[in-house]
Write a structure and sequence with these properties.
Elements (H helix, E strand, L loop, with lengths): L5 H8 L5 E7 L8 E7 L17 H14 L2 E7 L1 H7 L1 H14 L7 E5 L10 E4 L2 H4 L1 H24 L5 H4 L5 H10 L17 E5 L5 E6 L2
Helix pairs in contact: 2-6, 3-4
Amino acid sequence: MRTFSKREQTYFERGIRFLAGVDEAGRGPLAGPVVAGAVIFPVDIDIQGIEDSKVLSATQRKNLCEAIRSKAIASSIGVVSHQTIDEINILNASILAMHRALSGLGIEPDHVLVDGNLFHHATFPFTTVVKGDSTCFTIAAASILAKQHRDEMMLAFDATYPGYHFGKHKGYPTREHIEAIRRYGYSPIHRRSFHVKQLSSQLPMFDQYGFESGTRTAR
């Protein structure tokens, strides 16, 4: 995609001026935050290469992020920590991250396009779009912003907790990640409410200072 889809064009034809796209990254990982991106473009936007963030290389995402931010009317990121994910569950945390991203735009959108089929907002009119990150320009751009920001956060966590290789798998449940949890236990940024069947029954947990503070049954 290089500009708005036919679906998005219909909103402009109806008089919508500020059409926002929003998407999240990080619902599936065992560690780290969930991050949402939101973006509003001018009606004459043209950026070559906008696609679902999952099909782009790291270099493509980085370059596209720069183009998105420079050409957008407004763009924003919303972050919800692993602690809050454990407290309110990943679905509610994802919606909260999207709310935070929309609030950070500094411009009130006339309408919001949201990837998926589960969302709510008390103020902004919105439409959910299943597979919106592969069919809507604004949602795809938001997904790129979200994934790039989250990947950068996980790279920083990799430097703090090098044994887990967060920079490689970004917290997703790869074999390498699961083996690292077996070996070292849960790190301070692991989501305690997430369980993986492949893990052994008892794993050490660590507090914010890195000391073992108990065990947890993994299911």
